[in-house]
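Notes continue from the previous slide.

Worked example: a multi-chain complex. Inputs as given:
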Amino acid sequence: MAQIEIRDLGIDYRKPKSNEVFSAVDNVELSIEKGEFVTIVGSSGCGKSTLLMAVAGLVNLSRGSIKIDGKQVTGPGPDRAVVFQEASLLPWRSVRGNVKFGLEMQRWNGGDLNERAMQMIRLVGLSRFSDYHPHQLSGGMRQRVNIARALAVDPDVLLMDEPFGALDAQTREIMGTELLRIWERHKKTALFVTHDIDEAIFLADKIVVMGRNPGHIKEVIKVDLPRPRDEAILDSDDFHSLRKRLRAHLAEDMSSMQLVKEVA
Amino acid sequence: MIVELFYRRQALILGTLSMIGLLVFWQIAVDAGLINPFFISTPSQVWTEFLVQFEDGQVAANVGATLYCFVWSMGLATVVGIVLGMLAGWFRDVESALEPFIWFKYSAPTVAFYPLFIAWLGYGTPTIIAIAFLFALTPIYANTLSGIKNIDRDLAKAARSFGAKPLDIFLQVALPGSVPVMMAGLRLGVGRALTGVVVAELFGANAGLGYAITYYGQLMQTTKMMVSIVIVILLGVILTQILSFLESKTDSWRVDSGR
Ligand SMILES: Nc1ncnc2c1ncn2[C@@H]1O[C@H](COP(=O)(O)OP(=O)(O)OP(=O)(O)O)[C@@H](O)[C@H]1O
Ligand SMILES: [Mg+2]
């Protein structure tokens, strides 16, 4: 059995200032193997974050179920850690304090907290900045802290919601490569939401393409590019054909969005 | 280098210069016979009188009495305001339950309660402390409330994702996040507590700066009265500055974050 089993998942939200309910995500079926790197793409508002937050246990399910290692997800748990789009670091804590935060919340007792935090900070290459506060860091550095904080609690599953969304293309590429380096070492199961097609392909074993109204899975694409990967594969033929396929999917979604606008 | 120093301390230097300018203008205007010293005295007379009152112990006695009431009222307002503010910020029901009192306090002038307090507590220190306490309470309570209530939702979500319990979120996210706003509330509270003490002393006391102001005021001894007025102003400035300093210490993580 797969490590993560999502069955017939549906999540409803209430529209603001009314009792109307709408489905942000519906009929989602997805299986993710242990150690797999899965990226989720889809146009804005199609429910990517909602799906990820459901796996994190941060939103209530309206229908269906999510199981991790056979256990029903009913809330956040130490088997999962989230890297949010906005770095969401505590501004009054130093880099080290922030990396320790998750450990403190989980009442971690696997040894010295400082030691553990420093180890993770080294892993993301921020040793020199461990005493800095978030406002003294660049966006990219903040996301490294964010990743270190998630890795520190040693989760089985790493959930990432557009962690590099706010970064420029170049930094993004570097961060992606580095994330793969770390992932290849620790082999955590990873769920990674992104807008960026290249990023989605570059990182993934498997790409989940989502459509909208309500959010659903359109297709799951296997990526068989060899690992370890580096920027060179961006120019390979396989990469190009995958990119073409994803573009077509997203363009389709955009035109349906156009249609909605015209009707409305 | 002097120019550089000037720019660094520009606000302080300009403020000091304008103060000195005012004092000089005041002195000259009275000396030139433009203003009757009876209404306003002169800086040099006030200074001379200050030395006299300092020598005979009046200054110490008045400042001591005023500070005593100030410390008690500010201390009580800090404890009560922060505790109630935290409860109301965290529990919606507590906020709703306290809301009428806050509206009441905002719309009715606190001094209006003065006769009531006289009836309950008698003339003197307890009444002064009670009035000043009420003066200072509102900003401390209101700021603490809004600080806790406006907790950063994203940070709370991140904390929950790591399994934080509500108490963890309160202690690790809501509370540290509201320290700067709470400090601003305390700074406002300090000014208001001092005002409260002096105002209450104007009405009924047998010591304190407010008492000295009415006492000499009724005797039409302007210079003697001005000494206490100037001390009240200086006290207010010093206390507020201390709080501003503490405030800047506590929100260093916030000051340049948005820029
Ligand atoms: N807390 C909420 N309450 C009500 N509606 C919500 C809530 N969160 C999200 N939604 C709605 O659910 C839908 C899906 O939102 P979601 O954030 O999952 O999209 P997304 O695919 O992550 O978009 P983006 O790529 O722009 O981040 C949107 O229509 C959004 O308005
Ligand atoms: Mg999103």
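Summary box: The mean pLDDT of chain A is 91. The first helix of chain A runs from residue 48 to 56.
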